[in-house]
Structures are given as structure tokens and as C-alpha cells.
Amino acid sequence: MSPDSFPLGPLPYPLGAPLVRREGREKVTGTARYAAEHTPPGCAYAWPVPATVARGRVTAVDTAAALALPGVYAVLTHENAPRLAAADDPTLSLLQDDRVPHRGWYVALVVADSLEAARAAAGAVRVSYETAAHDVRLTAGHPGLYDAETANGGHPGTRERGDFEGAFAAAPVTVDATYTVPPLHNHPMEPHASTARWSDGHLTVHDSSQGATRVCADLAALFRLDRSEITVVSEHVGGGFGSKGTPRPQVVLAAMAARHTGRPVKLSLPRREMPAVVGHRAPTIQRVRLGAGDDGVLTALAHEAATHTSTVTEFVEQAAVPARVMYTSPNSRTVHRVVPLDVPTPSWMRAPGEAPGMYALESAVDELAVLLDIDPVDLRMRNEPDTEPDSDRAFSSRHLVGCLREGAERFGWRPRDPRPGVRRVGDLLLGTGVAAATYPVLIAASSAEAHAAADGTYRIRVNATDIGTGARTVLAQLAAGVLAVPGERVHIEIGSSDLPPAMLAGGSAGTASWGWAVHKACTELRHRLRDHVGPLPDDGLTAAADTRRETAERSPYARHSFGATFAEVQVDTVTGEVRARRMLGVYAAGRILNSRTARSQFIGGMTMGLGMALMEGSGLDPAFGDFAERDLASYHVPACADVPPIEAYWLEEEDPHLNPMGSKGIGEIGIVGTAAALANAVRHATGVRLRDLPLTPDKVLPRLPDRPARTGPADSARPRSVAEPAPPGHHDK
Length: 733
Hints:
By secondary structure, this protein is α+β, with helices and mostly antiparallel strands. It is 24% helix and 24% strand.
């Protein structure tokens, strides 16, 4: 792929301009319609029945009482539900057999003439089970752990370079510590919802999804239809964070119920049931070992992650993968181990792998900086690699050092007193922390159409999905720039499987993938317009393009975004409460296509990282096998009062090895370094290293020193190593 293929000269329409989102008025006035807000005539309502045992099989379903209630049309079970074809995703094989692989697995579905009737009838369904012994407890020494062949994204489960054990044993300064992250949940504002109807054999579904193309393909396979016989619409989506990246049970159940009853059916999953059926970030127990010389340069690096998956299908959180990218490491070992438990199937959550993995790695790097008495910013700069350590490929662009320098300047990092526990305001201890961030550049094949109408307007058609990122606005900016026309003359159609197929909104790959196809289609249309003589025909001119050839080529470069996150915290010595006082991030993410929406994405990611660090977490009840925290009353996410002033900046990065826009994904990198930056700030504030997220008062308060803040040199008898054995039985509740 030649850089000459991507002309990056100035565009006549301002890419990067802070244009207001096109659908903003629709959303604030309530005219933007979401999946559950489509109510066809005669629409019925469905309510699912979850399993109440952690493992076993259904022996009987008594539906008599439910069917006797007014307004109830049907109760679907494994005995009468429509038969589905074998699914590539086994979590979609719903009501097909009597197996219960985990608590919360759906075993029946009630359909009624109102939401209230469906809910009441679901409570009247009586299910009998044959139970079996279950295990939902991830521990560092679980006998069922095995080395994963691959981790999420197709990454090799294990990678080794050099002689890690020898180099680690010979290193004068070492860190050996274990960090734990509990199960986390996406909890988008809009629940997972679908409205399905069949008409003359054609299935139309309004689905809350990050990708209608994928939903259409999976429904076609399950119901043995051609894709042309299905229309999936995901025009407006109220958040997803990965949990809507693949089809979820509600879309399959709604389509099954609509076929069975002959009526349109609407199904919105109850929030408290979502943790069991729409994926979650799997817990991780991560051991990080670092060996370095007195100069701080790493000579040995090992990152070993243990996690769980379900017995339904394997999903391995790729937490150790970022360690293959970040720092000089001639002797390296990165390993993923996994154990199948009787738990819901984990899946994508914003920055899968990178978010928990970089928490552990960047905490360990901070521990090394303390041991060496080297500034944490300087230590990271000393370990900047010339090429990607894992592949030895040149980076297409890498400006982590620039992010660290600019972030330190903007944050006021220097001069920083490195001593812990010396900044105090009354009962509050204050501290600052820093962490690096990375996220890969991912691009997938997509298609688009560009149409010039006789009235001088343009229409862009691509099955992109706007999950709150401003995709409509950015794609319109891009199209207007290529076509050299005012933006108000460009209309965007997205969010339907009837449009040219495209990549889902995930992996921070949406804009790069859709934008490339739009750029190519608009370029072709512009050429056709240039060569056209006379007025346009009444039906205008259309150009179509796809990027299958371009995206199939393997880049010779390692392509990643980088960033640096800085945080200041206060720790209340009376209550143990940790609060962020301010946060700042600087990112190198290629060309920024819309400064307004980009800043919002960076700040949103950092806010989600704040939740991960200080409040978010759940536990699996070992007796009942379900998540103890299943709603927003018990699973705490940051409210406005929890979020401090957050600043987001970026470097002007030119990278000709990406796509025609020179852009990288930005939706996920904001979360990646935030948890570690906050945890490192807590350590600086208190002198206490906590390694088990979230940093809630019950963990912080018992560890706080019961003596006045230090006034002399910190760690005067500083050891030359940190060794923290893996804790047994973490995440047991």
C-alpha cells in the first residue's frame, strides 16, 4: 500500500472543524426514534423468563397459569418455539433445548397485548429444573485454567521472546505484582431492545445494535433466509460500549415471537437481566513482572493474565496484548489463561483487553519508578522502543513521548514532589499519577454509495451506525470535503441493512472503515461529474465503492494510537473515600476529523475509566451463581457530581499509512490509561499501593496509615524489588 494512494492535502471543506452533530435537535426534542419506540399496528409485547438455577436442565414448564391471564397470546419454551439453524454464536441458540448453562439463561418468553400483561404472565410461568453442581469462582490457581490458543481479536494466546526467566533473575531491580479487575458491565442508557414484524415472508426488525449488517447476517442464518428477505434498522442507538456489537437475545426472541404469533412483537430486556445475557467484561487476575537496570531500562517483562469464560462459548479477554506493544522488552513473556465456568458469556466492553491490561501494566511501571526513584514520566520515555517489540515492524506513527511531554506541561506535573503522603489539606491526602495508553488501528472492509441529484444535492448511503459518536456529522464533513461542496448539500443515510454493508461501530474502527468507503465513492462520483457533459439526468449520477481489496492488504507497519493520562485525587483519611480532583489526557490519534465530537469521545472514555477505577464492579454469588450487582442502584457508575474537570487534547499527527483521511480510532483510547493514572495517584497520595479495583472506601480505609503524614524522605530504606504473590480466591462473593 503506497502512501501516494492517500492524498492528504488540504480539503476544501474543513475536516477537523467543530461542527455540531446533525441529529442533535432530533435527540433533544425526542423525535429521534429508538428501537423500542417503533410500535406497528397490532404490536404485542414480550417478556423473558430467566433460569433461576446456576446449572442444570429444564424438566418441565407449567404455562397454564400464565396463559389464563387476560391478554396473553403465547408462551414460548424449548418445546414449542420455532426451530433455528445452528448458530455461529451459541448464545443465540435460544429456546432450542432444555440445557441451562448459567443463571439468567432464558428458558421461556411470554407474549401479550401489553407490557404489563406480559410481565405479569412471565411471573406466573413455573419452571422445574434438574440441577447440577456449579462453579462460578475465578481464582489464580483454579485447576481448570488452561493456556488459551488465541485471545479476542485473533491474537496468539502466548508470545515469548528472548530468555525472560534468566533476564528477570539477573535484573538488579524487579517488580512482581498481581492486579485484579472484577467483572464489569456495559449498562448503556438504552436497554437492549428490538421490535420485529413479518410481512409476506419479509422480516423487518428495529434493533438497538452497533451494526445492522451483522444482525441481518446472523438472523438470515438462524431463520434460513436470504439476507434480502430481512431488513434491520438501527438508526439511533443509545449507547452500547461493545455490548451491542453482536446480536443479542432480544432480537432473536422478538423475531421468533413475531413468527409464532403472527403479530409484530416488541421486546426490551429488563436492566437487571442484562448482565446475564448481553456480555460483560470478564474478571482478570494479572501478574506483571518487570526487570530493569539501575538506569530504568527494562530488560525483562512478563504479563500473565487469567480470566474466565462460559461453557457456552469461549471468549478470552486479551489483557496481556498491550504489553507486546508498549515498551522496550528484549526478554518478554505474555500469556493468557482461561477457565470455563458456569457463568454468562463475557464479551466486548469498551477497549477490551487494553483497558484492564494497561491498568496492570501501567501500575507495575509506576511501582518500578518508585523503586528506582525515577520520575514516572521519564521512566516511560526511557523505555521507548524503536520498533514494535512483538513484531519488529516500524510504527506508522508513534508519538507517546510527545503526549507525555505535552501532558506533563499542561497538567503542571513538574516540579512534583515524589514523596507519598506529604500533600494534605485537612483530612484529605492529595496525590497525582500518570499512565500511558494505547489502542490498535483497526479497519474493516465497508461499502458506500455517493449520489448526485439534479437539484444540486448529494446523498451518501452507508450502513454505518451512530451510537452517540457523531458518525453522521463526520461522514458528511468527509463527503463534502471530497466533493468540494457545502456540507448542507450533503445528506447522510445510515443505520439500515438495506444500505451498502459496512463495518459495525466497534473496535474504534467505524469512522476509519466507513470513511474510507465514503471517500472512495465520493472520489469516483467527483470523477464522473467532471467527465459529465450537460445537465444531470433526472435520476442523477451514482457511484458505488467498497474497500475489500485495500483492507485485505496487510500493512507493513504497526499501527496504533497512543496517549498519556494525568490525574489528581484526594483521599479522605476519615472515610477512605477517593475522589478525582482533575484529569487530563493528551492523545496521538492521527488526523482529528471533528474536534467537537472527538473531544467528547476522549472525555467520555476518561469518565468511563474513572468509574472503572473508583466504583464499578460486580461479583458472582458462589451459592446462586448470578451477579450480585445487576442494576444501576447496586452497580455504581459515575454521576455528574463524581466527574471532575476533565481536559482532552491531541497532537497534530500526520500518518500517511492508514486511510485516505489519515485518521485513527478515538472512541476507546480515552478509557485505557485512566484507571492506572488514578490508582497511581492514590498511591502517591497515601503511600499505599492498592492492586484490586475498584478503589472503594472499604479497601482504602483499612490500609491508610494511622500516623501523621511523612515530612522526611520517603522510602529511605527503599527495597530493590516488589514481590506480591497472586491473591487466592479473588472475586469470590
